[in-house]
Amino acid sequence: MSGKFEFDWPVVGQTKVKTYLQKSISNGSFSHAYLFYGPSKIGKTLTAKLFANTILCEKYQTINQSEQPRKIPCHECDACRQFAKNIYPDIYWVEREINEKTKEKKANITVAQIRATQEKINKRSFLNSYKIVIIPEAERMNKEACNSLLKTLEEPSARTVLILIASTKETLLPTILSRCQLFKFMPLTRDEIYDYLLAQGASRTQAKEMASAAQGRPTVAMKFLADAEKWSQYKSDNSVFLEILSASVVERFKYIDDFVQKKTNEEILAVLDQWMSVARDILLAQTYNNEMISNIYLDELLKKNSIRFSSDKLADLISRMEQTKKYLRQNINSKFALENLIINI
């Protein structure tokens, strides 16, 4: 299939990836498997959704070479409407399941999930369309799941496209990588995110602070702009960390006790990433690398703490935060893990 198209892909940046994928759509030449990899919140999942939506869009499937260019995905046809409601029958998402007891996501994507998906895609398409499988957090597949997926990659079903999404390619089997087209997604510059936020109606101050805090991740910046409460919570969680740094041991334990009661395990992991960025900012303030600081709204507090702590102490704290994240992923009690982190600040 070939034709002239106008792509409605509101992905910030990632020009090389978009250009290649859109060209393959225009030429009707798809790979049976793709891997989108790179840091979180930089557009991998959005690109996967738009790629899948475009392939399934009826305006794409029925275009005539002699017609004027069409916008795709059109967001108007039955396929697009079903896609938007997440009820299109020939697209399958394979994500970590929820543990019924803890209400948290399970540690891994299991072999049972992969096999169930294989059974579905081996059957006839419901709508005589492409069958598309999207696997976010593909690095979370356990060994058995990876080996099972490999069989599908080696013997792909007709008109089936698999899109794996991962933070890194290093944790996936080389045999899986060799059977996928690889696309590396890169963080954006602050200026790119700043300009985008201004175009979306942010004030200059908002755009500057949010673009810095986003650390190259446009999805994070967009969520901050769209949700004032989320931006406020981000700042509040960072304030808690700075208060812990200057508190007594007893006060620190109280902070942690209050903190863990309000957060899920996944939320605590996200906040630990924030706290690590603040600790790095303090290190940057010590060395006068102010242009690299992420949380620029904390300017005076960063300078204050840069005097209180040695660089070795801060480096050790960052290292122990990383270790704490590993403990939490192993389902160690979050309160115990955080108390162990903050007791020797």
Give a brief outline of the structure.
It is globular and about 65 Å long. The chain has 16 helices and 7 strands. The termini are far apart.
Overview of this protein structure:
- With 345 residues, the protein is an alpha/beta fold.
- It has 3 domains: 5-184, 3-Layer(aba) Sandwich (Rossmann fold), CATH 3.40.50.300; 187-226; 227-342, Up-down Bundle (Zinc Finger, Delta Prime, domain 3).
- The protein has 16 helices and 7 strands.
- The chain has helices at residues 15-27, 44-56, 58-61, 78-84, 111-121, 143-154, 174-177, 190-199, 204-214, 218-226, 228-246, 249-262, 265-286, 299-308, 311-329, 334-342, and strands spanning 5-7, 33-37, 70-72, 91-93, 131-135, 160-166, 181-184.
- It has a 5-stranded parallel β-sheet with strand order 4-5-6-2-7, with helices on one face. Strands 1-3 form a two-stranded parallel ribbon.
- Helix 10 (218-226) crosses helix 11.
- It is globular and about 65 Å long.
- The mean pLDDT is 92.
Low-confidence stretches: none
The total count of helices amounts to: 16
| CATH C-level class of the largest domain | Alpha Beta
What is the count of β-strands? 7
Ends distance: 62 Å
Could you tell me the strand content as a percent range? 5-15%
CATH superfamily of the largest domain: P-loop containing nucleotide triphosphate hydrolases
Silhouette? globular
- The chain-level mean pLDDT equals 92
What would you report as the Rg, rounded to the nearest angstrom?
23 Å
- Structural domains: how many: 3
| Strand order, sheet with most strands | 4-5-6-2-7
Please state the structural category: alpha/beta
